[in-house]
Write a structure and sequence with these properties.
Blueprint (H helix, E strand, L loop, with lengths): L1 H8 L6 H30 L12 H15 L3 H11 L1 H42 L2 H12 L5 H30 L2 H21 L12 H11 L12 H5 L2 H32 L7 H28 L4 H24 L6 H13 L8 H8 L4 H26 L6 H25 L23
Helix pairs in contact: 2-3, 2-5, 2-6, 2-7, 2-8, 3-5, 4-5, 4-6, 4-16, 5-6, 5-8, 6-16, 7-12, 11-13, 11-14, 11-15, 11-16, 11-17, 12-13, 12-14, 13-14, 13-17, 15-16
Subcellular location: Membrane
Function: May be an inorganic phosphate cotransporter.
Keywords: Ion transport, Membrane, Sodium, Sodium transport, Symport, Transmembrane, Transmembrane helix, Transport
Length: 457
């Protein structure tokens, strides 16, 4: 009955929600491009074969590359609350526009302020990008109908992986043609262009949009159980922090980041020292795992909507299924990668691509559970999750460095892969046992509603 009601008011064809999805997809793409552009540019910036280069030691380069995350963690917790009170449009615009302006200034900062000013710029970029994930989760909870969030939310978040792949592929060509400075200028122009477009067409919610039709607005409101006059209620923090299903999602997020950042930061070294191939100097090859994750995210998102649309299994079990693909899939692939014979580059690249590619299942797993539990507070909850997960993303490479004393010894690398595989397994097992997608009663506390259908439950 509920399904029939929603289908009766669902507008045909593309709508404003799809335009918002595309704009937010581009926001993720450009944000992540600017997140990783320094990793590619610094190779050319410190190339001793160039007449003009920066004589930065390996430790200084490492400091520059890590400085982004010093700022990134700080605003995770307040970002979700800010999005609820000032609107997601303002925060995501601030994040992309300031990152773009800092990218524009980066070459000048390097030439006149040295590595110290470059680090300062990267800290500021990380600080403002701290808004991205919590704000994006809030915007998804406002714009994407429940019947479409499998595909549309996946499209938005998959922009991050395409942004990484995009930067890895084009940076080498741009630097060779116009110099490393052009890497930052390209990112700046694209990011500022997006800012102008989003200021014109973006909106914090359907209710605030000036271009949405009444039919599409009604469809989104009925699907999400939301009213025109809904007020911004204070977050029930005692309920949020004691919500076990939320912590199941947070722990799964931490496990995902441990494995993902172990792969992202340590694979080039493993390939170079053990397998004899340096992926860092081959941007196209380096981008394959991220392209695979980007491409696999679409069929997984579509399958989520198809499964739920036909009622084959419950929402909770659908989230369990795809989260298991996203975490236990890489766990198995990591074990295969650890036993790849020396010199078998093709098999190693295949296993690495699988390890990262099937990780796309997370987009239809714990990521959506955070929205399922409490759409009204999903930004704040995502801030909590991303705060802890990004602490893990800093710790994981440090643990790897502690374990691997001889970078040419495959036995030591196996310990790293076994550890990551075990963490993938244990964190997803915790998720399977304690998660639920049932909307929590405190999501709707003191909510005023005047639409026909308050809830789809």
């Amino acid at each position: 009955m509920v399904k029939e009601k929603i289908e009766n008011v669902r507008p045909k064809g593309l709508g404003v929600r799809h335009a918002q999805t595309f704009l937010l997809f581009l926001a993720m793409l450009f944000a992540y491009s600017m997140r990783v552009n320094m990793s590619m540019a610094i190779v050319d910036m410190t190339n001793p074969e160039k007449e003009k280069h920066f004589d930065w030691s390996h430790s200084v380069q490492a400091m520059i590359l890590s400085s982004f995350f010093w700022g990134y963690i700080i605003l995770q917790l307040p970002a979700g609350e800010l999005a609820r009170h000032v609107g997601g449009k303002i925060l995501i615009t601030v994040a992309v526009s300031i990152n773009s302006l800092l990218s524009l200034l980066m070459p000048t900062a390097a030439e006149h302020g040295g590595w110290q000013l470059v680090c300062t710029c990267r800290v500021l970029q990380g600080l403002t990008q701290g808004f991205v994930y919590p704000t994006m989760h809030h915007l998804v909870s406002q714009w994407i109908p429940s019947e479409e969030n499998g595909l549309l939310a996946t499209i938005i978040y998959a922009g991050a992986q395409l942004g990484i792949a995009f930067q890895l592929i084009i940076s080498g060509f741009i630097a060779a043609a116009w110099g490393w400075q052009a890497i930052f200028y390209t990112n700046a122009v694209l990011g500022l262009s997006w800012t102008v477009a989003y200021l014109m067409f973006g909106s914090s919610s359907p209710e605030q949009s000036k271009i949405i039709s009444k039919e599409e607005l009604k469809y989104i409101q009925i699907s999400l159980g939301r009213a025109d006059n809904q007020k911004c209620q204070p977050a029930p923090w005692s309920k949020i922090v004691t919500c076990l299903p939320l912590w199941a999602a947070v722990i799964s997020h931490c496990g995902q980041n441990w494995g993902f950042f172990t792969l992202m930061t340590e694979m080039p070294t493993y390939m170079a020292k053990v397998l004899g191939v340096n992926l860092k100097n081959n941007g196209v090859l380096s981008s394959l795992p991220y392209l695979a994750m980007f491409l696999l995210s679409f069929p997984m998102g579509m399958m989520t909507d198809i499964i739920l649309g036909h009622g084959w299994i419950s929402t909770s079990n659908t989230r369990r299924l795809f989260n298991t693909i996203g975490l236990w899939g890489p766990a198995i692939a990591l074990l295969g990668l650890s036993y790849t014979p020396e010199g078998n580059t093709l098999l190693a690249v295949i296993m690495l691509t699988l390890s990262v590619g099937v990780n796309a299942g997370q987009y239809a797993g714990y990521m959506l559970v955070i929205i399922d539990l409490a759409p009204n507070f999903s930004g704040s909850m995502m801030g909590i999750s991303n705060f802890f997960a990004n602490i893990i993303s800093i710790i994981a490479p440090l643990v790897c460095g502690f374990i691997v004393q001889d970078e040419t010894d495959p036995a030591e690398w196996r310990k790293v892969f076994f550890l990551a595989s075990g963490i993938y397994f244990i964190t997803n097992l915790f998720f399977l046992i304690f998660m639920t997608s049932k909307k929590q009663p405190w999501n709707d506390h003191e909510k005023e509603t005047d639409i026909e259908m308050k809830s789809t439950k």
